[in-house]
Amino acid sequence: MRAAVVRQRASLLAAAALLLAAVALPGAAAWTDCSTGPTVFKVSEVELVPTVVKPGDVANFTITAEAAKEVRMGVVQMIVHYAGMPVWTQLDNLCDKTAAGCPVQPGPVQVLYSQLFPAITPPGFYDVTLNGHSITEALFCVKVEFQVVPPGAEQVAEGWAAALKGPAQQQVLSTHRKSLA
Ligand SMILES: *[C@@H]1O[C@H](CO)[C@@H](O)[C@H](O)[C@H]1NC(C)=O
């Protein structure tokens, strides 16, 4: 009985999360500036596409900023937290991640990250911190919070269709039909 109530609550929460996702502005991510002092880049916007990630998706993060001066080289550290715990970290060359490479000229600059969330990614609350540094200075720090939701029924059906072609698939469907009758 209690388990059923918990399940019902969980599905209500999931429905509420989907509703929230549906009304959220497309691409506009919940982000905060995590810099602890002055930075060379002034970040104006962080985009996440898709806004709500499903396991197996590639999520694209785009940071739009204004560089106060030329930057010849730098690194970006990415840290992924799941349910508040660090689960993934990597270090990248800044020059591979800026739209126009290096040196970064003073003025508008975009930092792009494409991150695969493998099919086995557990659903839940995630945040990604992207922390950029040159040799001597802090460039930027942004923290993006988002949710990984379980795949929808449509996706599951597509997965079955791709995995089971021909007679096996038909058998699954006819068994299903019998159980519905
Ligand atoms: C994410 O970025 C990659 C690489 O730039 C691109 O190929 C892909 O189409 C982008 N995906 C979305 C959903 O925008």
Structure commentary:
- The protein starts with a helix and ends with a helix.
- Helix content is 28%, strand content 39%.
- The protein has 181 residues and is α+β, with helices and mostly antiparallel strands.
- The longest helix is centred in the N-terminal third of the chain and has 22 residues, at 2-23.
- The chain has four helices and eight strands; from the N terminus they run αβββββαβββαα.
- The strands form two sheets. A five-stranded antiparallel β-sheet has the order 1-8-7-4-5. Strands 2-3-6 form a three-stranded antiparallel β-sheet, with no helix packed on it.
- Strand 7 (124-133) and strand 8 form a beta hairpin.
- Mean pLDDT is 82; it is low at 19-26.
- 2-acetamido-2-deoxy-beta-D-glucopyranose binds next to strand 3.
- 2-acetamido-2-deoxy-beta-D-glucopyranose binds at residues 49, 58, 60, 114.
Strand order of the largest sheet: 1-8-7-4-5
By DSSP, the count of extended strands is 8
User: What molecules are bound to this protein?
Assistant: 2-acetamido-2-deoxy-beta-D-glucopyranose
> What fraction of the residues are assigned to beta strands by DSSP?
35-45%
Shape: elongated
Tally of helical segments:
4
Q: Classify the helix fraction into a percent range.
A: 25-40%
Return residue spans where pLDDT drops below 50 for at least 5 consecutive residues.
19-26
Q: Radius of gyration, rounded?
A: 21 Å
Class of secondary structure makeup: alpha+beta
Biggest β-sheet strands, sense, barrel: 5 strands, antiparallel
Quote the distance from N terminus to C terminus: 27 Å
* Overall pLDDT confidence: 82
String of helices and strands: HEEEEEHEEEHH
